[in-house]
Amino acid sequence: MKKFNNNELYQLLHIICNNGNIRRLVREDITFIEVIDNIKELTLKGILNYQDAKLSLTKDGLKLFDELSAKYKNIDKDKWIEKEEKSRLEHKIEIDFIYLPDQNKLYF
After folding, report:
1. Distance separating alpha carbons of residues 37 and 4, to the nearest angstrom
2. CA distance 74 to 43
3. Which end of the chain, N or C, is surrounded by fewer C-beta atoms within 10 Å?
4. Is residue 15 scored above 70 in pLDDT?
5. For residue 108, is pLDDT > 70?
6. What is the mean pLDDT of residues 25-51?
7. pLDDT on residue 82
8. Which H or E run includes 54?
9. How many CB atoms lie within 10 A of CB 102?
10. Are 44 and 53 in contact (CB under 8 A)?
11. Contact 19, 29 (CB under 8 A)
């Protein structure tokens, strides 16, 4: 089991506190199994509370979340939106270039 660093722990606590989606952690190469294992560990430590099929932060969890948010909160607004690189062209296209799509690759 991979132990979360403080930034990943902050993100996990932020997701739980705001009822968010853990796909943000998965995008950073953290598997669902690692997330679940860390949630179990935090529940056993008393940082998280699992009751009525809901996860919530305990008083200790809120205290830890506040401590971590002072250091790891993402204030830089340029980092809020991740750049999409998948559809970016490798080479610049000339201004007078006429693009003709391949008819076999069009799906409607």
Report:
1. 10
2. 25
3. C
4. yes
5. no
6. 89
7. 73
8. strand 54-57
9. 6
10. no
11. no
Give the dihedral sign, CA 20/77/11/13: negative
Sign of CA dihedral 2, 30, 63, 51: negative
pLDDT computed for residue 1 by the predictor: 57
CATH of domain 6-73: 1.10.10.10
H helix intervals, 46-105: 59-72
Q: Give the CB-side neighbour count of residue 38, counting CA atoms within 13 A.
A: 21
| Residue 2 near residue 34, CB atoms below 8 Å | yes
Average pLDDT over residues 75-101: 78
Across all residues in the chain, what is the average pLDDT? Answer: 84
**How is the chain split into domains, by residue range?**
6-73
